[in-house]
Amino acid sequence: MLEIVRPEAAAPGARAAMFDFDGTLSLIRSGWLDIMLDMMTGTLSALGSGESAEQLRTESFNRVWPHTGNDTLFQMAEFAAMVEARGGTPEDPRAYKQRFLDELFGISERRIAHVAAGSAAPDRYLVPGSRAMLEDLRSRGLTLYLASGTDHDRLQHEAAVLDIARYFDGGIHGAPFSKETLVTQITSAPGMHPGMLIGFGDGPTEIAALHGSGALAIGVASDEPECRKVSPFKRRSLIEHGADYIIPNFLCRQALLPVLFADHEPV
Question: I need a surface site. Which of 128, 155, 207, 222 has the fewest CB within 10 A?
Answer without folding.
Answer: 128
